[in-house]
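ok so i was messing around last nite and threw this chain in just to see what happens. nothing serious, just curious
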Amino acid sequence: MAMYARDHALIATPIGPIRIEGKDGYLERITIDAGGPPSRGSADAVRMAAEQLEQWFAGERRAFDVALSPASTPRGACLREGLIAVPFGQTISYGELSRALGSSARAIGQLCARNPFPLVVPCHRILNQGGGLGAYSAGQGPITKSWLLEHERRLTGDYLL
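result:
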């Protein structure tokens, strides 16, 4: 029987509880530092995302393979894909990514600020010009962003000074 109602999972992670919301066919939102009792979820996409996030935190996964709700515009979809393409353990500035995608640094900043899929769409890998950490709209902001970047660098052995 297909499930059309929204489902959720809540998993414990080193950066706090993560809530994963979606349906059988795709994810609708991921929230870092969410509240509530642990839950595994029942929708296929939600369960798959929970499993993949746990693997990511365990160092067993570097990319995600889950369906996301469609972006609101074709341009938004293109920008999202460009963000997803930033490799695990690497960073790029808002300006560099905007030039690569034929966009503006402001548009990339807005994409990151409104990202409903932190970690899966890795906006934590986007830095200010000159390598400054910059803002982060998920979890505890820059503290969470710093932890995520250090986690990836520990696993790749790529420490930037």
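not much to say yet. The chain has two domains: 7-57, 74-156.
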